[in-house]
Structure formats: structure tokens, C-alpha cells
Inverse folding.
């Protein structure tokens, strides 16, 4: 492999530090209620792409689907060191589900020539479906290496340590491929002021549904396979159960945890 | 009309440093403070972000930004902790800036890249045991013998002078006498030079996770080429450095004052007394309103001074005003925040407890509040 042409998917999400809620009208995300930030797992995806680029040379393109203000999240990825960006923004996308989103992202990635690797986060902190990377690989006809805690590229092969509840699996695939990364993959860098200033001059291509040849009726809330019928705030935390230790405290705690299926 | 909004780049820098302060500094700083330990890991992270290179050109590994960018970074750090903020302030405005402003190209290329990247720190040795505000009282001497400066004397309260990564101290010394008084020059003394001893660090009231040491020079010899700037211009040079530094310290004070607001606002919503959040009582509301007003007005004062400086206008009076009002705001807000927290505010592990201890030095360092009033009135023509 000469150099790598890497695509990173990023998503702007409500800051987990602020209060997150759904709108009363259509139960979609209330984007005005919380500060919007690049999802933390995406910062790790960007970092991994930058590390691969630093090791092998090449280019990192950020791809994001979201409303106009997602440019802030895109700019952060560019400030960290990504080279260019594709921003898919169209009012008709409001309320799209994961399948529709994966289709749109796949179309956008097809507009980029010679992609070697697509890097995504495992799961966003807002929707938490965790399905996009696999769906995307399916749509693009590429191997999927998900839940990576370590990524290595040698020649035309990508090798991944996949970590799930079942343990660690070693995966390998020929490039091009789709990789999704988990929390343990790396510690993302903070953008430097030089990076912040350089980001302003980096190219951002904005695409609408028309540019991707997608009919607006195929996407959005009305055409979604899933819909949210009702939503309610999380009930306040209960008082909990008090265990007096009479020599059997440890056992009783384990019994309690076992009853909750936590151990 | 004056416009105090931040442009996109400065806003993004501010947000990035705020995130770093929240995620990297806040969780661990109380431990460093308690142990009076220098936070090398945090300082390395600040270096990797380029904070130590903010106002310097890229040819010296700087970030190509401006002094205002440094001030914004200082404000956001000090909102969480003043020890790391003063480490940055002293590293840039007292450590690297004299080399950049007064150094030869050789000196800049030799020392600045390591300082801009935060791999090394530099210190500025001005204050002596018998002379703080009265810099003319300098007793440390440097005499030229056989192509070397021989330095003798001592300095006190020198920030960043004794860390494992300190590379040099710029020392002001008497290099001769003229009719006008002492001829003062600045000489760069690299760490580890024979005859240069760093005494153990002080036990301080505040800024406990920063490094402050006493320095002694006994027949300490450095090359003649280590003279920084013109011989005899040492006094004028450090006045310029202190004028700028006041804007930076003002930003740091605004950060502390705002940090007090942040903490108090959170606590006022959380803490209940007599069945209601304490934030629903006017006694607390008015305190917090006053605190916010002080932080806001002090911020405008340092923005104005920094804007004048970057436009190349005279900023001496505005820098002194900013330093005066921001250190007042920091002291007042720290006192009120501690009051709002009650007994918890008196505990060292709470941020407001640290803010209270860290605020006082702001009325003393980089020119006391009395010196600021003196400078302001002089600028108004009163002599």
C-alpha cells in the first residue's frame, strides 16, 4: 500500500454534560435543549485515522450527516488534523432512522474515490443503536471489523483486536474495509491553535440529497422503519436497599447483584 | 463600536482549553495541590496542545497566535485551577517572551523551540529578598571576566525555576554603575550551570501545584553571549515584560473569579436548606449576581488591554486597571464563594477552598495592587 485514503464518520450529538431530551412534538432529539459537540467516540475514530495517516501517509476525509450546525463538529475534526470533509445536510433527512442514515452515508462515501478504509465509532452517545458501521459495510460490500480496541494496517491488510463481552477476537481483512472503534482504542488529541487556524482553510463539500441521487421520500421521519411513539423522563432513582452487615454482608451483596443479573 | 465577541478561532481555542481543564485538570489537581507536587503530566498535555507556544511564530515551534490567545487559555485554565495557569503564564510571558523579544536570532533558535513546545520551561529571576516592587534595588551582580559573566547574588519567589524540565533562568543583575544609578542587564543562566543552586520549594498559602524556588548564584559563570538584549537595558526590558504580564495575570484572575461563579451556581442549585435550594434565597442570588458582574467587568478590562496591545497602542494604564480590578474580583468572589459553600468551602479538597487560597497572590504578584494604583495615577499625569 502506497498511502492510505481514509474516511472517518463523525456525528454531532448533544453534550453528555448537558441535559438531553426529546422534543414533545415528534420525539426526535431536541437539538436546542443541549450544547452540540462532536461525539467522543468519533474523536477517537478521528485520532485512529490520524495515527494511521501518520504511520502510512495519505489523507483523512471526515464524513458527517447532520444539520447546518454540524459544521462545528466537522471543524473540530479538521482542527485535530483531518484533511477535508463532506457534510451531508438536507432538511428532508430530519428523523431518519439507522438504515436510511447508513444508505445516505454509503452514497456519500461512494462520491470519494479510492477509499481504503472507513473508520467509525462503535455507537453514538445519543441514539445508541450501534448499527451504522455494520449496515454501512453491508451496503458498500466491504468487510466489517467492529468493536476494535486496536487497529493495524500492514500492506493491504487491516488487522483488528475486537473486544466484546465474549472476549477478544483477532480479525483480519483485505482493504478496503470498514472498522469501528471502541472506547479503549486511544486517547484523542486536543486540537492545537495552529490546527484550529489551519482548519479554516480546509475544503468542506456540502451535499444535499439531490447531489447523492436520493429521493427525499426515501428518507426522514415519515419513511423511517422505526418510530418513537412515546417518551418519558427517567424515573428518579429509588432509595436503594440497605444491608446491615452481620457477618454475611458480602454474601448478601453478591446475592443482590446476582438477582439483578449483574454478576 | 467596540466588539468583544471572540472570532471563530479564538472561540474554538477557548472551548478546547475549557474541555482540557474539565477533563484532564479538574479530576486530579486537588491531589497534586495537597501533595504540593508539580503536575508534569498535565504540563506535558498543555505542551502537546501548543499552549506554551501560543503567541510565538511557527519558526520557533510556536502556534502563530497572539497574546490574547494566551490570555483566553489562562482564563479557562484558572477557572478550574490557578497552579497550572500560573505555570503557563510564567512559562510563556516570563520565561519564553524575554528570549523572543530581546534575544538574538541565535538565542531564539537555541532556546525557543523547547520552550514553545512545553518540553522545557524557563523562568524569570527578578525579585530579590530586599526588593520586589523596587526593582532598582537589585543586588545580584554580574561582571565580565575573561569573556564570561560571573554572577553572584540571590533571587526569591521564582516561578518554574526548579522543575525537572526547567532549562534556564533569565536573571536581572547589576552590570555596572552610571550617574543614573545601577546599570541593570539580563543574563541567561542555564539550569545546571556550576555555581547556580536552586533551593527547595517554598511552603505557600496557595498555587501549591506550581513550582516556586529560591535561587543562589556563587561565582556562577556563563558565556558572554548569554547577555539577553542590550547591556544596561535590563530595567526597561523587564518593565515591558511586566506590562504585558499584567494582562495575562488579569486573565488568570478573571478565570478564578469565573470559576467561583461556576462552582457557586452549581452548588446553589444542588444544596438545600430549610426545604429549598439555597439558590432560591435572595441572599445567595445577590451574592452570585455580584460575582458574575465582577467577573464580567474584569474580563472586559483585560480584553480591552489585550486589544490595545495587539493594535500596537499604549496599553500601560489599561493593563494596570485590568490587573487591579481582576485581582479584586478574584479576592471578592473567592470570599463569597467560600461563604456560599459554608463549612465545605473551608475544606482544601473543594475547588472554592483552593480558589480562596489562590486568590490572594493576585493582589501581590506582577506588581501589587498599590503599584497598579501608582501606575494608573502616573499615567493620568499625577506625579
Amino acid at each position: 500500500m502506497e498511502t492510505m485514503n481514509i474516511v472517518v464518520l463523525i456525528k454531532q450529538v448533544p453534550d453528555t454534560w448537558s441535559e438531553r431530551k426529546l422534543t414533545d412534538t415528534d420525539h426526535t432529539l431536541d437539538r436546542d435543549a443541549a450544547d452540540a459537540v462532536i461525539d467522543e467516540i468519533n474523536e477517537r475514530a478521528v485520532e485512529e485515522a490520524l495515527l494511521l495517516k501518520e504511520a502510512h501517509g495519505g489523507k483523512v476525509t471526515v464524513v458527517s450527516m447532520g444539520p447546518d450546525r454540524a459544521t462545528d463538529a466537522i471543524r473540530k475534526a479538521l482542527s485535530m488534523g483531518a484533511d477535508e470533509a463532506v457534510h451531508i445536510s438536507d432538511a428532508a433527512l430530519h428523523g431518519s432512522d439507522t438504515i436510511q442514515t447508513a444508505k445516505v452515508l454509503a452514497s456519500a462515501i461512494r462520491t470519494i474515490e479510492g477509499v481504503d478504509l472507513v473508520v467509525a465509532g462503535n455507537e453514538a452517545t445519543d441514539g445508541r443503536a450501534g448499527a451504522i458501521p455494520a449496515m454501512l459495510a453491508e451496503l458498500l460490500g466491504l468487510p466489517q471489523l467492529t468493536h476494535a480496541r486496536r487497529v493495524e494496517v500492514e500492506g493491504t491488510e487491516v488487522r483488528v483486536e475486537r473486544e466484546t463481552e465474549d472476549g477478544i477476537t483477532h480479525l483480519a481483512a483485505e482493504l478496503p474495509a470498514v472498522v469501528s472503534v471502541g472506547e479503549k482504542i486511544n486517547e484523542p488529541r486536543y486540537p492545537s491553535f495552529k490546527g484550529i487556524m489551519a482548519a479554516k482553510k480546509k475544503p468542506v463539500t456540502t451535499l444535499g440529497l439531490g447531489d447523492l441521487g436520493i429521493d427525499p421520500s426515501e428518507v426522514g421521519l415519515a419513511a423511517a422503519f422505526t418510530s418513537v411513539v412515546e417518551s418519558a423522563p427517567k424515573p428518579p432513582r429509588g432509595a436503594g436497599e440497605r444491608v446491615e452487615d452481620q457477618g454475611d454482608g458480602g454474601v448478601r451483596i453478591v446475592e443482590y447483584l446476582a438477582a439483578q443479573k449483574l454478576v | 463600536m467596540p466588539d468583544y465577541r471572540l472570532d471563530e478561532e479564538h472561540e474554538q481555542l477557548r472551548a478546547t482549553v475549557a474541555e482540557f481543564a474539565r477533563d484532564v485538570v479538574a479530576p486530579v489537581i486537588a491531589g497534586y495541590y495537597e501533595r504540593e507536587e508539580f503536575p508534569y503530566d498535565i504540563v506535558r498535555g498543555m505542551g502537546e496542545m501548543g499552549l506554551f507556544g501560543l503567541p510565538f511564530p511557527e519558526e520557533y515551534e510556536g502556534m502563530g497566535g497572539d497574546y490574547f490567545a494566551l490570555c483566553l487559555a489562562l482564563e479557562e485554565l484558572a477557572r478550574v485551577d490557578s497552579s497550572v495557569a500560573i505555570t503557563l503564564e510564567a512559562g510563556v510571558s516570563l520565561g519564553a517572551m524575554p528570549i523572543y523579544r530581546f534575544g538574538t536570532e541565535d538565542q531564539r533558535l537555541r532556546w525557543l523551540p523547547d520552550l514553545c513546545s512545553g518540553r522545557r520551561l524557563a523562568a524569570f529571576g527578578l525579585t530579590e529578598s530586599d526588593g520586589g516592587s523596587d526593582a532598582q534595588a537589585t543586588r545580584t551582580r554580574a561582571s565580565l571576566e575573561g569573556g564570561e559573566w560571573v554572577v553572584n547574588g540571590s533571587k526569591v519567589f521564582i516561578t518554574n525555576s526548579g522543575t525537572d524540565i526547567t532549562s534556564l533562568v533569565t536573571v536581572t543583575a547589576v552590570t555596572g554603575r552610571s550617574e543614573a544609578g545601577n546599570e541593570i542587564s539580563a543574563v541567561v543562566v542555564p539550569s545546571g550551570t556550576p555555581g547556580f543552586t536552586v533551593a527547595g520549594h517554598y511552603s505557600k498559602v496557595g498555587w501549591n501545584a506550581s513550582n516556586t524556588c529560591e535561587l543562589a548564584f556563587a561565582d556562577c559563570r556563563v558565556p558572554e553571549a548569554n547577555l539577553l538584549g542590550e547591556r544596561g537595558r535590563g530595567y526597561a526590558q523587564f518593565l515591558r515584560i511586566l506590562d504585558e504580564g499584567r494582562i495575562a495575570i488579569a486573565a488568570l484572575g478573571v478565570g478564578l473569579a469565573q470559576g467561583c461563579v461556576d462552582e457557586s451556581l452549581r452548588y446553589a442549585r444542588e444544596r438545600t436548606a430549610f426545604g429549598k435550594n439555597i439558590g432560591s434565597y435572595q441572599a445567595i442570588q445577590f451574592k452570585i449576581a455580584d460575582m458574575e458582574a465582577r467577573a464580567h467587568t474584569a474580563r472586559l478590562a483585560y480584553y480591552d488591554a489585550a486589544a490595545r496591545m495587539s493594535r500596537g497602542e499604549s496599553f500601560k494604564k489599561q493593563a494596570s486597571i485590568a490587573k487591579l480590578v481582576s485581582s479584586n474580583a478574584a479576592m471578592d468572589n473567592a470570599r463569597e464563594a467560600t461563604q456560599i459553600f459554608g463549612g465545605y468551602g473551608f475544606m482544601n479538597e473543594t475547588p472554592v477552598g483552593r480558589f480562596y487560597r489562590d486568590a490572594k497572590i493576585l493582589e501581590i504578584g506582577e506588581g501589587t495592587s498599590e503599584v497598579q494604583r501608582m501606575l494608573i495615577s502616573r499615567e493620568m499625569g499625577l506625579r
About this structure: The first helix of chain B runs from residue 8 to 25. The mean pLDDT of chain B is 95.
